[in-house]
Amino acid sequence: MFVARSIAADHKDLIHDVSFDFHGRRMATCSSDQSVKVWDKSENGDWHCTASWKTHSGSVWRVTWAHPEFGQVLASCSFDRTAAVWEEIVGESNDKLRGQSHWVKRTTLVDSRTSVTDVKFAPKHMGLMLATCSADGIVRIYEAPDVMNLSQWSLQHEISCKLSCSCISWNPSSSRAHSPMIAVGSDDSSPNAMAKVQIFEYNENTRKYAKAETLMTVTDPVHDIAFAPNLGRSFHILAVATKDVRIFTLKPVRKELTSSGGPTKFEIHIVAQFDNHNSQVWRVSWNITGTVLASSGDDGCVRLWKANYMDNWKCTGILKGNGSPVSGNSQQGNSNPSLGSNIPNLQNSLNGSSAGRKHS
Amino acid sequence: MEKMSRVSTALGGNVLTGRTMHCHLDAPANAISVCRDAAQVVVAGRSIFKIYSIEDEQFVEKLNLRVGRKPSLNLSCADVVWHQMDENLLATAATNGVVVTWNLGRPSRNKQDQLFTEHKRTVNKVCFHPAEAHMLLSGSQDGFMKCFDLRRKDSVSTFSGQSESVRDVQFSIRDYFTFASTFENGNVQLWDIRRPDRCERMFTAHNGPVFCCDWHPEDRGWLATGGRDKMVKVWDVTTPRAREVHCVQTIASVARVKWRPECRHHLATCSMMVDHNIYVWDVRRPFVPAAMFEEHRDVTTGIAWRHPHDPSFLLSGSKDSTLCQHLFRDASQPVERANPEGLCYGLFGDLAFAAKESLVASESGRKPYAGDRRHPIFFKRKLDPAEPFAGLASSALSVFETEAGGSCMSWFVDTARRYALAGRPLAELCDHNAKVARELGRNQVAQTWTMLRIIYCSPGLVPSTNLNHSVGKGSSCGLPLINSFNLKEMAPGLGSETRLDRSKGDTRSDTVLLDSSATLITNEDNEETEGSDVPADYLLGDVEGDDEELYLLDPDHTHPEEPEYVLPQEAFPLRHEIVDTPPGPEHLQDKADSPHVSGSEADAVSLAPVDSSFSLISVSHTLYDNRLPPDFFSALVRDMLRFYAEQGDVQMAVSVLIVLGERVRKDIDEQAQEHWYTSYIDLLQRFRLWNVSNEVVKLSTSRAISCLNQASTSLHVNCSHCKRPMSGRGWVCGRCHRCASMCAVCHHVVKGLFVWCQGCSHGGHLQHIMKWLEGSSHCPAGCGHLCEYS
Q1: Which residues contact B683 (CB under 8 A, 6 or more apart)?
Q2: What is the pLDDT of residue B494?
Q3: What's the whole-model pTM score?
Q4: CB-based contact (8 Å) between B336 and chain A?
Q5: What are the sequence ranges of the domains in chain B?
Q6: Cβ-nearest to A341 among B341, B411, B598
Q7: C-alpha closest to that of A292 among A223, A229, A360
Q8: % of chain A with per-residue pLDDT over 90
Q9: Between B30 and which of A150, A316, B45, B224 could a Cys-Cys bridge form, CB atoms 3.0 to 4.6 Å apart?
Q10: Of A183, A166, A80, A155, the residue nearest A117 (C-alpha)
Q11: Helix axes B443-457, B464-472, angle to 10 degrees
């Protein structure tokens, strides 16, 4: 059972993204009011706003934390066609005495000519890298060659996706067997039904990102995409938020079988598909072990999805945006959000009992 | 002249028609202006000056006003304006400082009427008086504004802004005598046309040049200004001090601003550089444009609403040499595409969720998405100009925290802290870890540990010391299997609960279960003395799951011999976890709709249980009697580890890997091992379990991992006495020959953890310094430094 802790965010317009840091003790929010706020969790569990500053001259779509090894670093992206990297300044100052911290802009990435819709730091083992995607359909990958110097970023790759991009996700796997991989979703709503999710993989030989896969079945606008944390799994799990929630598994076909130079081939299965949000699904987010997926949609609810031991995905909880549990039969799903433990959940609510059948 | 006025009257009462369209011009446009009849538009630029008529489907070129052989600088237009009372009267501002008026009623090809060469530099703007037929105002780069009476040859009055460059001049629509002018230094001046000596009022509107201004068509005191500081500000100038009513932040410098007709709070803007789009803003929602027109490929230079009372047609000219008509309903609406929700899963299973308040507040707040196929397209919400403003959109932010201690991942942290990974005999490690797992309610894991102990430490194979240990543990060596399975211990907690649950639950599956459990009991009784009702039920649960599980997990797993013997063991623990799951109290309310997992599997169960239970038991006997070598199980253990990893429990995989060490290492792919290690270490670091993480790194056998804590291990410190860098080894300073690691609080040499301030190099025992800093922020050594420890 969840307890909702409502926070007076005091953003002047819509909040578009929320992001926890690596240790889960800090939170960043960004809003159309062009500002980013940083929240710190106090000892008693309350969240306090410790910084709030104007970051862009347009709606800020996303905010994301870098691995703390690189310092307290945030990246944001905006409608104003830029992405920016911010760093918290440590030092004795008046701000600190007031319980406020100070963030300075380290760089502005101005390569896009249209709205930058998503920004994500690469997994730590790849170094300090940053990917952005923009409405003109280009994914850009930047690298800070010197991790101590956050003001110098070089544009390493430009990947053209042909479609207006809305979201990206790095494959978090740290295995040497998995090449760096990035999934891109598009919210292009033009009627021609094109696949809206593309997956690009880094090729060691050509030193370029090349398209590895396209999820042909996803033809509706995609609003969010997320690889599950890969804790030693040999395959990848990808969640897609479109008009419904979809979960795909990508099993790499053994390298020996394919020609060694080309991109990895994947065996792709859709393992779950839920339209319980009744309308657009806006966000998907994985728990830390990659066993529970949370999704939020136009119905204003957060739904939790979990696979049982049969790899059958079921709804294990519904949370209303204001914190009240959803009344009715489905409520029972709330009672055990056994997150992270590998207890296959015996219960399932009637939501999703019919969905989630295995089909490929 | 008569002909034209007829056309306009005919159009006067009609509703405008048209579509989004564009036409190519020969040259880049600098400005456009619409005729009063809303059927013609004039486009002016450095090398273009044409009138187009706006037809339903296209623009048709009507008249080219650039006549004559030699191109004159007088025709290089910076601005153009069409008189709003007289369809035949136009004025242009030339880049050479000339103001030209044009009379379309002239019979000759050359329509040029008058020429005013009074300004010394480029004229940026010309403006006709809205009610006076003959009054024209100009603003120039030379800092002067001039008012012309078209019946006279020269200017009537000159206004000096006392500053550089006038960027815009606009007659007030409501106040007969007032006009506003904007300047490059950020000021706005309000003038009375009758008093050229000094301005009525002046205020600083922007940081940097103010490029444009526009009077509100209805609100007499509202003036919108746009500047290079990327802002559009709306001023109320009726109050003694000009008051900023609204402020819109755009993404680039604002070149033009035009209030939208019939929409009190809407205005259109275009930018001078970088941004080629035209935005329509609702000034009450200053951050997100209400509409966006993306047709132009280069900077938009002129915008004009087609008719002063029609809010849906916007005309624009651009440097990309096109003239466009935009229909408001074809505009893209960034608000509609903007993501209304944010969601993030926290480390401890907490969820941060931000959502648009209207979505959260009520179910009815749901609106169909434009691209949603299930909603027919005609339901698409159109922006109705008359629609009342819904208010500023805002989001509700909340964090959903898991109850009970607030940490759902506490099992992970506890397990990581309490597991013993090395330093003791294998059997003990397994027992210890099994105990830890059991105490944390993770019975599947506990079982696994127990089985590992059996596999690798069965009496015949365990070195004598280990054997002693396991005997000493109190497990009777004669019956290791039974003891280690701990059927009895587990039964009261789990079995009874399960049975309770089942008896309340699906009746059909209940009977099946009871039946088969009965069979099992008999079997058990035959084979083992421990057989009783409770463990039998418990066993049954395992049996139930394993067939399914096996084939799912490992579809191509082919053991040539005795596959059934091996596999049930692996699947065995699975059911423990399932059994362990405490059912929700509401579970009973809808049994029909919520198939109990075990219930849904009941059919499969009823076919298999007897077989499997036999095999299970026979395996244990095979194991015990024949003393199979551990190698026999290595494939199984390997699969088990892989299973845990695939299930997201990399902790188990790594812990077993470390505990078993060489026994299994060679069977598992090196890369996979490394992957498990890095994943687990990453997880531990997330939870700030640095010590555990370091232990794992130390114990790892993989080279890539064990070098992780070899990197960046050198510290550079200063001597706390002479403040010079310490060069030599140890804690004795090479210069002043004193021990540098003295505690500043207790003045003893610190052994072990030494903490020091990087600013003044003073430090001491961690406890002492912490205590000291509670009371004071100054250095305990008395050097006056405000010490910082992060």
Answers
A1: A231, A288, A289, B412, B650, B651
A2: 40
A3: 0.76
A4: no
A5: 411-457+629-710, 720-789
A6: B411
A7: A229
A8: 49
A9: B45
A10: A166
A11: 140
Instruction: With H, G, I as helix, E, B as strand and everything else as coil, classify residue B175.
Output: coil
- CA–CA distance, B149 with B9 (Å, rounded to integer): 27
Q: Does A32 touch chain B (CB under 8 A)?
A: yes
Which of A 161-190 lie inside 8 A of B, CB atoms? 173-177, 187, 189
C-alpha torsion B464→B470→B472→B476, nearest 10: -110
CA distances (Å), origin B339, targets B77, B303, B543? 43, 30, 48
Residue B385 forms contact with A (CB below 8 Å)? no
- Could you give the CA distance from residue B790 to residue B788 in angstroms, rounded to a whole number? 6
Smallest Cβ–Cβ distance between B396 and the set A17, A177, A322 belongs to: A322
Q: What is the pLDDT of residue A138?
A: 94
Q: Which residue(s) pair with A160 in the sheet?
A: A138
- Quick check: A229 and A266 in contact, CB under 8 A? no
Report the chain A residue with the minimal C-alpha distance to residue B346.
A24
Tens-digit pLDDT profile for residues B494-512:
433 434 344 443 434 333 3
Sign of CA dihedral B607, B608, B610, B611: positive
Hey, how many other C-beta atoms are within 10 angstroms of the C-beta on B507? Answer: 12
Gap between the Cα atoms of B156 and B118, Å rounded: 11
Q: What is the pLDDT at residue A355?
A: 37
Beta bridge partners of B396: B355
Residues in B closer than 8 angstroms to A329, CB to CB, are 586, 589-590, 593
Output the CA torsion sign for A6, A12, A15, A19. Answer: negative
Interface touch A59/B288, C-beta < 8 Å: yes
What average pLDDT does chain A have? 83
Q: Indicate the residue type of B664.
A: V
> What's the angle, vertex CA B452, arms to CA B450 and CA B456, rounded to 5?
125
Residue B458 confidence (pLDDT): 62
Tell me which of B253, B269, B400, B552 to substitute to probe the interface with A (most A C-beta atoms closer than 10 Å).
Answer: B400
Q: What are phi and psi of B670, to 5 degrees?
A: -60, -40
Structure token digits, residue A138:
């280009």
Structure tokens at B737: 């020959």
Q: Are A131 and A168 in contact (CB under 8 A)?
A: yes
Q: Summarize pLDDT for B209-260 with one digit per residue, the tens.
A: 999 999 998 877 899 999 999 999 999 998 888 899 999 988 889 999 999 9
Give B41-107 as a DSSP string.
EEEEETTEEEEEEE-SS-EEEEEE---SSS--GGG-EEEEEE-SS-TTEEEEEETTS-EEEEETT-S
pLDDT in tens, A20-37: 999 989 999 999 999 999
Higher pLDDT, A299 or A226: A226
Mean pLDDT within A148-165? 92
Angle ∠(B625,B629,B631) on CA atoms, nearest 5: 145
Task: Give me the interface pTM, i.e. the ipTM.
Answer: 0.86
- Candidates A247, A309, A348: best to mutate against B (most CBs of B within 10 A) is A309
Residue B459 Ramachandran class (φ > 0 left, ψ -120 to 50 alpha, else beta): alpha
CA distance B6 to B10: 6
Contact A303, A317 (CB under 8 A): yes
Residue with tokens 């910082």: B788
Residues of chain B with pLDDT under 50: 1-12, 363-388, 405-406, 460-625
CA distances from A277 to A356, B365, B471, B655 (A): 15, 13, 58, 40
- The stretch A140-152 carries a mean pLDDT of 92
Residue A148's nearest CA partner among A200, A83, A70 is A70
How far apart CA B22 and CA A34 sit, in angstroms, is 33
Mean of the pLDDT values across residues A221-232? 91
